[in-house]
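Ticket reopened. Same input as before:
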Amino acid sequence: MDLPPGPRSPAIWQTIAWMTRPGAFMRGVHARYGDPATIRTYWTEEPMVLFSSPDAVRAVFRLDPAIAPAGQSWEFLRPFAGAHSILLLDGEEHLRERRLMQGPFHGERMRAFAPMIAELARAELGGWSGRVVALERMRELTLEIILRVVFGARDDGEVAALRGVIDGALDTVRSLPWVLAMAVVRKDLGPRSPWGRFRGAVERFDAALFELLARRRTQPEADGEPGSMLGLLLAQRDEDGHPPDDRHLRDQLVALLVGGHDSSAASLAWAFERLARHPGVVARLREGDPAYLDAVVREVLRARPALTIAPRRLLEPAEIAGHTVPAGTQVAACLWLACRREDLWPAAAEFRPERWLGEAPAPNPMSWIPFGGGVRRCAGAPFAEMEIREVLRVASALTLRPSRAESERARRSMLVLVPHRGAEVLVG
Ligand code: HEM
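Engineering reply: fixed in the latest deploy. New output:
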């Protein structure tokens, strides 16, 4: 069974293009080979078939997890994510874990976190003036939000302790040379080797998290406190009425950290990169219309989706929008292409929030997929949208200019695409 066509260059070159010029790489592959197309990178052991038409995307999201487990595509995260991680589970186990984790993301409970996020955003943006690399600041802010709102850190000491061990674990996987070294040499060759350093960082992270859990079990959140997601997760009960053990809670918190930190920081950085080049949008945001704010959030996520693919590993051949793809292949809904294809979006390259305010024709829901879809759709999407809304509300008071007129291109930082100069803006 033949795979759809794709670049013939060696996997190492495709990996470098995928990492350093991901936008140009995906655009080039689509322009030359169409939809679907097959790429080969060190990202996955198997070739990956990218789909981006709405019908194919829907078919990928509907694949039976028994033949197309998504968890297996994230296997490389296992050393950090842990055995209970929602990211790695499939089928019934995945659905059970999803039910448990989605509790804190519902309605009123989740909205109760908005004032805390707005306050953290005001504290961060209040200090901005002159040249600011928004990506660096957004990494700090979104981590602070996760530590306070999700992990329930109560004071600066707890935040600092957790921040140190998280940076230790994430820094190893954010550097391009280290990631390439880890992809090529897949073994732990001692404490100084890439995998050895990563393992040590994860051990330090786990020790700090277990200490936090021990403290929270002895000093739970009092009624009337703003509370945290950890407080809600500690109150979970499985179908037999059992509370989660520390290992399970640790894996849930890590899934929220891995899912929610870099993705939100990258999306917010892109928001600053776009807003600095569209002063008219900032002026309209300042008027405070909630529908316009929502439109800006949707448009940032469309024009610059932070995650590029939602991959599934095929254990059996599958028929996807008229293409039969053999077993042993990764198939992926290409979020980046779907959100930006010229034939799916009028003036796709333009940043135009107005397209969300009743313009016809309404976009096909399978082409706005920054959060993926199906049973694996981002569990934190409502939280992410709220977080971006709160930060942009505060940001609309700033006067922003780009440090250079031309738009920033995308480069890959671990799983997400970020602006290549880090969304460098001039404030004031
Ligand atoms: C703008 C920010 C975000 C973007 C663009 C994003 C995007 C995504 C995408 C594309 C997926 C995979 C979907 C698939 O495979 O079909 C995903 C999964 C996930 N995300 Fe997000 N995410 C964001 C923020 C968050 C936040 C803030 C949290 C939590 C606090 C979160 C938690 C998760 C979790 C737990 C999963 C795994 C879901 C599962 O496997 O069932 N994400 N996200």
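The chain has one domain: 11-427. Residues 70, 86-87, 98, 150, 255-256, 259-260, 263-264, 267, 306-307, 310, 335, 370-373, 376-380, 383-384 surround protoporphyrin IX containing FE (CB under 6 Å). Please confirm and we'll close it.
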